[in-house]
Design goal:
elongated, about 190 residues, alpha+beta, about 35% helix, single chain
Length: about 190
């Protein structure tokens, strides 16, 4: 009677095929994750820009001085930060202020990496956290939201030039360099 089972050759072929499949997945998976995260970032920033529009309509003003949101209550900075970040105070996060008027859903709103602000955990440059800036550019008030896309190159000069030097409340001309200082390479202009 012949024994049932695999031959050595069949087992080796199965192991080689499984190894090839694991190797392919190991090569493709990191890029897939980066592209997925970048898609979430684009969507988040569009949603954030829309929420800032809603805030402006409801409050008849931009989310800036007097809002008690963002860096030193002036409406700019890391959108999810609250409390003390380095030497800065965030009385309320920009997100919580937008959620308070129901412009954003009540669930947590952070970058897919979980990063909230520079220096927090693995939040090093380029920083994978969202930022907001209301500033002037050629005498016009503009608002931007920023993120870092892992699959796109840095565009520091372009991003650094979005605002006139020193026109962001709470930031001087050096610290408002969103591209070169923080690595932001994607932005959405709020209407």
């Amino acid at each position: 009677m012949k024994a049932k089972g695999f031959t050595i050759v069949e087992l080796i072929i199965i192991i080689v095929v499984i190894g090839i499949l694991v190797g392919i997945v190991a090569l493709v998976w990191p890029n897939y994750l980066k592209q997925t995260h970048d898609g979430e970032r684009r969507s988040d920033l569009q949603q954030l820009a829309s929420a800032l529009d809603v805030y402006a309509l409801q409050k008849n003003s931009l989310l800036t001085t007097g809002s008690n949101c963002g860096k030193n209550g002036q409406g700019n900075g890391w959108v999810s930060a609250a409390g003390t970040v380095g030497t800065d105070t965030y009385p309320n996060s920009i997100i919580s202020c937008l959620q308070a008027i129901e412009a954003l859903p009540g669930e947590p709103f952070t970058d897919p990496s979980g990063c909230v602000s520079v220096g927090a955990g693995d939040c090093t440059v380029p920083v994978r956290a969202y930022m907001k800036a209301t500033c002037t550019k050629s005498s016009q008030t503009v608002t931007y939201v920023f993120g870092h896309l892992e699959t796109e190159p840095r565009i520091d000069t372009e991003v650094d030039a979005l605002c006139d030097a020193g026109s962001v409340l709470g930031f001087d001309a050096t610290t408002q360099k969103w591209g070169s200082l923080y690595g932001m390479n994607y932005y959405v202009k709020v209407n």
